[in-house]
Amino acid sequence: MAVTVLIPTPLQKFTNNQATLECTETANIADLIENLEQTFPGIKARLCEDNGQPRRFLNFYVNTEDIRFLEGTNTPLKDGDEVSIVPAVAGG
């Protein structure tokens, strides 16, 4: 099973400047974050609060669906899914 992960530019310094990653053996978003941490130590602290929940200024999407409206970090992943990590944008 392979899931494609799209990494935003500000976080690419933690992924050896890779914008797209392929992750395997990920049952859900929580597993994906743990797998990213194993491969790229330190990235989890940039993605999650101390309680393991995504930082509020980062949005995670699975195939264009916001995980906040799915099952959060328990949102299941299947082969071929695309996970986008998108920093929140604010302005006035």
What does this structure look like?
The protein is an alpha+beta fold. Strands 2-1-5-3-4 form a 5-stranded mixed sheet, covered by helices on one side. The chain is built from 2 helices and 5 strands; from the N terminus they run E-E-H-H-E-E-E. The termini are far apart. It has a single domain, classed as Roll (Ubiquitin-like (UB roll)), CATH 3.10.20.30. The protein is 17% helix and 25% strand. The protein is globular. InterPro entries: Beta-grasp_dom_sf, MoaD_arc-typ, Mopterin_synth/thiamin_S_b, Sulfur_Carrier/Prot_Modifier, ThiS/MoaD-like. This is MoaD family protein.
Tags for this entry?
92 residues, alpha+beta, Ubiquitin-like (UB roll), five-stranded mixed beta sheet, 17% helix, globular
What is the topological layout?
Elements: E1 2-6, E2 20-24, H1 29-39, H2 43-47, E3 58-62, E4 65-66, E5 82-87
Parallel strand pairs: 1-5
Antiparallel strand pairs: 1-2, 3-4, 3-5
Succession of helices and strands: EEHHEEE
Q: What is the CATH domain class?
A: Alpha Beta
What CATH calls the topology is Ubiquitin-like (UB roll)
Rg value: 12 Å
Average of pLDDT: 94
Structural class: alpha+beta
Uncertain regions: pLDDT < 50 for 5+ in a row? none
CATH architectural type: Roll
Inertia-based shape: globular
Oligomer: single chain
Distance between the termini: 42 Å
